[in-house]
Amino acid sequence: MRTRVVFNQKGGVGKSSITVNLAAMSAKHNLKTLVIDLDPQANSSQYLLGDAATYSAEKQALEPNIENFFEDVLGTTQQKGLIGSAIGSILKSRSKGLDHFVHQTAFPMLDVIPASPTLGALEHALESKHKIYKLRDAIQALVSKYDRIYIDTPPAFNFFTLSALIAADRVLIPFDCDVFSKRALQTLIENVIETQDDHNDSLEIEGIIVNQFQSQAKLPREVVQQLKDEGLPVLNSMLPPSILMKESHQKNLPLVHLSPEHKLTLAYQNLFSEIESIE
Fold first, then answer.
1. What's the pLDDT tens digit per position in 79-95?
2. Which uninterrupted H or E stretch holds 2?
3. Does residue 163 register a pLDDT over 90?
4. What are the AAA domain coordinates in residue numbering (predicted)?
5. Among the listed ranges 96-100, 116-120, 183-187, which one has the minimum average pLDDT value?
6. DSSP state of 96
7. Distance of alpha carbon 51 from its chain centroid, rounded?
8. 28 φ, ψ to 5°?
9. What is the pLDDT of residues 2-29, one digit of tens each?
10. Which of 11, 106, 215, 265 is at a distance of 20 to 30 A from 129, taking alpha carbons?
11. What angle do CA 208, 143, 102 make, to 5 degrees?
12. Could you state, in order of their start, the residue ranges of all structural domains in the chain?
């Protein structure tokens, strides 16, 4: 089993699109694949599950979800008093595995654990009770059930992102050829290296995914070349801009199912082949 985290502290760089489409490629290659959505915006969840995973003031988030998993980690059945505390301790010791929170998608070999908009409310309790390794332990228990796991993360370096990095083998970093993104990249990489040193020495940066790459424009080419000159692991397979991605989101169909021969789909296929070939 290989676990990949798609991570960037900057929003709007395509994390969810990349997570879902690489996972869909993985499933299409007959690899049993799970997406774990840790972003309260739930874009990956909605991409794969459509209306079932949408939420509003009138509609609750789809359950079970990743927030329910972390509630289970905390033993948060919220009983009161001494007896309730004792029961909570017993329930905590019998916490459910991640497979209890999985939803099947409409696509063969592809499952998802959806996000929740209120996931952030648990962050302080999880930190104060030192639950930072619980996601890693739960993912390791899935080794016989999945070949690939992709984790979508929030645009922040917080408890949930750190949990994902601790649980993962590889990190994929989306990058959108923006000068501000380049400036933020150093901090991001420093956070990954610190996580390697302190928590997960097997974690590797698998590569920087250049998204929305306009090959005919001078500035994107210069920015990418600067990254390469600095020795950063820029992947060769770059993703071009295309209106097809918006159509893919709207129809809740990953590219490989919507338009297999489109240039953007083929770019994702090349990207998937490239990362799968990395030892």
1. 434 444 555 554 444 56
2. strand 2-6
3. yes
4. 2-205
5. 183-187
6. P
7. 20
8. -65, -25
9. 999 999 988 888 999 999 999 999 999 9
10. 11
11. 85
12. 2-276
- CB-based contacts of 87, cutoff 8 Å, min separation 6: 77, 79
Decide if pLDDT at 111 tops 80: yes
The amino acid sitting at 204 is E
Q: What are phi and psi of 50, to 5 degrees?
A: 65, -140
Q: Is residue 237 within 8 Å of residue 201, measured between CB atoms? A: no
C-alpha closest to that of 227 among 203, 208, 204: 208
* Cis before 64? omega within 30: yes
145: pLDDT confidence band, cut at 50, 70 and 90? very high
**Span 192-222, pLDDT tens digits:** 999 999 999 999 999 999 999 988 888 889 9
Chain position carrying tokens 């840790």: 38
Give yes or no for a contact between 181 and 200, defined as CB atoms under 8 angstroms apart.
no
- The answer to whether 181 and 216 are in contact (CB under 8 A) is no
Strands (E), 75-229: 103-104, 110-113, 148-152, 170-175, 204-210
Q: From 37, 53, 225, select the one nearest 113 (Cα to Cα).
A: 37
Q: Do the Cβ atoms of 178 and 214 come closer than 8 Å?
A: no
Query: In sequence order, what are the beta bridge partners of 207?
Result: 172
Number of H helices, E strands in the chain: 12, 7
C-alpha span between 72 and 240 (Å, rounded): 41
Instruction: Report the SS3 class of residue 116.
Output: coil
Q: What is the bridge-based pairing of β-strands 33-37 and 170-175?
A: unpaired
CATH topology of domain 2-276: Rossmann fold (3.40.50)
